[in-house]
Amino acid sequence: MRGAILAGLTLAAIPCRVASAAPPNDLRPAPAKIVGGSASETCAWPGVVALQSGGLCTGTLVHPRVVVYAAHCGTFHTEVLLGEDIAAPARAVETLTCERNSDLFAVSSMDYAYCLLAEPVEDLAITPPLFGCDEDLIEVGTPVTIVGFGDTTSEGPEQVGLKHEAQTEIVGYLTTIGIGGMGTGADAGDSGGPAFVELDDGSWRMLGLVSGGGGDGATVQYVPAPVTIAWIEDRTGIDLTPCHAGDGSWAPTPACEGFYVATEPGATWAEGCPSARSGPSERCGPPWTELEDLTPPSVAFVEPLDGDALPSAPIELDVLAAADDDGVGVAEVRLAIDGAPWLDAFGLASVDQVPPYRFEGVSLAEDGEHLLELEAVDWLGNRAVVGATIIVGDPGDETGEGTTDETETGATTSSEAMDDGDGACNCTSQPGAPALPGLAALVSLCLAGRLRRPGVA
């Protein structure tokens, strides 16, 4: 046996924005690979991706712009690879930033990270993370499918880089989920790779992602998908659970459908991997198609307030907003400055899909009055706008005359469909650093609540 077994550890979360570096030998998680499985067909599990910076890992596309993987795989990934063979990928998608929840290189429920993609992958069927009422499926005996690009043999030279899958089951669950064993399991190169579970409508969810454990077909520990959601949503401002509110209650949106069911026979990457997709989900309550809402959401400034006087330019400030909707819930909040959409650090129109709604590092280069506008849109396209005028460079003026606040005259509304666009993260990618020698020997699987919208009763 080439991979040593390492028992799961319960470790406290550490704040994000840590530099990626090879860990000390005594903390390195144990290699694990998918053995006992078979090669995936073309376009099967299209959302399972490979990451190669500093070593091979596996990740899952859980949203058109978000890939989830293991924290111990580092943050230096400039692209993710789609397809079945990393030597000849079907696509390479650039990342804007990658960030990890913890710098603890050990088997742990905190061993998760994400990459924000530069462009959304909109033609592939998504497999979202398990959450809410579906969490009951995390129990011993639940059948799962594990997928990854890792080693596929328990003897001889490692064979990595080809997407493989295997059917196995949950064998234990404490803080991490024990999956596989008896000759079937993840191994080197499968770090961050998913375990999928099938729902009663035929669609799939990412139940967990590989952290570490024994190799060569032994049981491997997976991070439970539900524990990853709040932190990733907070960092990216993107809603990863379109069927549930932040507290796990049923709160379906128009995005609560169209999830991956199965790849159509003869599918190709050139065609966008045509797949059977689920209809509007009613697994835990009524589908979103039965919801009605003609009332716009409410939105207000928390900071700064209308009439606030700020120091002379150039200045940077954070804009905080409060938004609520008693119907289908708030889909997103947007910020405009002096009539133009505020662009984030990546040059994208800044959008926040989850509370607390905030826009960090808003820079103003000129003194004078500036009009800030917040637009809140609910999931059926109803809109509300509120404005606040701030004064830059004239802290002695406390009259507030000439300022504008649309909340005094009522929010503007519209039943038009929402503009296209996804949320974007205001964080920055981690600085690069070379992988240290011995990364291939990591004791890891890496080869060398917040309420967003009201629940439905």
Automatic annotation (TrEMBL):
Keyword Protein biosynthesis among UniProt keywords: no
Keywords assigned: Disulfide bond, Signal
Domain Peptidase S1: 34-237
Record-level Gene Ontology MF annotations: serine-type endopeptidase activity
Signal peptide: 1-21
Stretches the record annotates as Disordered: 392-422
Chain intervals with Acidic residues compositional bias: 395-408
Biological process annotations from GO: proteolysis
Highest taxon of the lineage: Bacteria
Record-given protein name: Trypsin
Lineage of source species: Bacteria, Pseudomonadati, Myxococcota, Polyangia, Nannocystales
